[in-house]
Amino acid sequence: MKFGIFDHVERLRNIPLDQQYSERLDLLAQADKGEIYGYHVAEHHHSPLSMIPSQAPYLAAVAARTEKLRFGPLVYVLPLYHPVRLVEEICMLDNLSGGRYQIGIGRGAPVGDELSMWGTDPEQTHSLFDETFQILMKGLTQDFLNFKGKHYEFEDLWMEMKPKQTPHPPFWYAGNPVNAAEFGANFIGAGTLASLPGTMARYKEVWERQTETNDPALPHVADPLYGASKRLFIAETDEEAQRRARPAYEVYRDNFVKPLPGGKSRRPTDMVVGANPNRQFPWDATFDEAVGQEQVLVGSPRTIKEYIASYVEESGCNYFVGSFQWGDVTHEEASRSLQLFTLEVMPDFV
Q1: What is the pTM of this model?
Q2: For the chain, N or C: smaller number of CB within 10 Å?
Q3: What is the rounded CA–CA span in Å between residue 95 and residue 163?
Q4: H/E element holding 147?
């Protein structure tokens, strides 16, 4: 079992942003020394949910502060990027890190929301994603880029920049196991001990099919990682962890809002509610519901270790991803939680 971290880098309102960046890099240096395998940072815009709307400068700093940690976006919202600029950015970051970069790709969550905020027709989300992905694969693996599509056209464009990893860094996909497997990518999803075996079985079934097809236009990660992401808060006792995690979770829920003039706000549901009215969004669940649904794991090292033991035995996953700083959890609290995880939980399973 490998262990990773997923991070939104939510706004902490009681400290300056430069201090928050510095402390988060300190936390990742701690994760690196604690043998955490991977770090995955989200992309969101215009809300307190993410203070990393431009991932490249932040991830360059992560490269400089760590030695072994693999890291990257989860995800690049591909429709928001010029594909050639993205190829060059990935090549730079992979070389700056000595070949530790990871490429997460996605359309945006919910589909089209970020695109519409930036004045582009959200109906173009899928075509922009498809073209950007195709160009990204060509640009990372070919000396001359040739492409003709609806949005982009390139002829014999010399690709000076090359990634450190060959033929390219590993790709990751979040949320949908079928899409992840069809792209030949590693997968991070969600679910309970009861639901995860079915999810991972679907992923592996489709993975085998795409492996047999061996489409050269797809990434084809050799030994895929697949698992689920959970929010964690670990303290010396279950009671202490519960007492602190409950109010932190309410701040996490509030951070999904996107402010509007006049003190109003909205949450990004427009493109998805109609398609699936029964879907539960991250901000819908109360703290108790989130704990019951295994979205949040709270407790002492012994309690968390018992859950991880069941996860290893029952989930069908080979990767576990925890979020250690969320809501208004402070740097000191997250650091202690991560320390308890790496020293008292992880050693039994690596």
Answers
A1: 0.94
A2: C
A3: 6
A4: strand 144-148
Output the six-digit token pair for 292.
């019951």
d(C-alpha 81, C-alpha 172), whole Å: 17
- The owner of tokens 């797809």 is 218
Report the distance separating Cα 311 and Cα 249, nearest Å: 23
Q: How far, in Å, CA of 120 to CA of 284, rounded?
A: 28
For 170-229, what is each residue's pLDDT tens digit? 999 999 999 999 999 999 999 999 999 999 999 999 999 988 888 888 988 889 999 999
Task: Tell me the two tokens of residue 319.
Answer: 């990767």
Return phi, psi of residue 38, to 5°: -140, 155
pLDDT of residue 279: 61
Alpha carbon distance 300, 317 (integer Å): 23
Q: How far apart are CA 208 and CA 278, in angstroms?
A: 31
Output the CA–CA distances (angstroms, integers) from residue 65 to 50, 60, 97, 212, in the order listed.
21, 9, 10, 40
Here the tokens at position 286 are 């109360």
Two tokens at 29?
């240096």
* CA angle 157–217–95, rounded 5-degree value: 60
**Sequence-ordered list of residues with C-beta below 8 angstroms from that of 303, at least 6 positions apart, any chain:** 238, 241
| Beta bridge partner(s), residue 105 | 76, 173
Q: Which residues pair with 297 in a beta bridge?
A: 232
146-164: burial string, b at 16+ Cβ within 10 Å, e else: ebeeeebebeebebebbbb
Q: How far is CA 204 from CA 200, 275, 319, in A?
A: 6, 27, 14
pLDDT digits (tens, 9 = 90+) for 7-31: 999 999 999 999 999 999 999 999 9
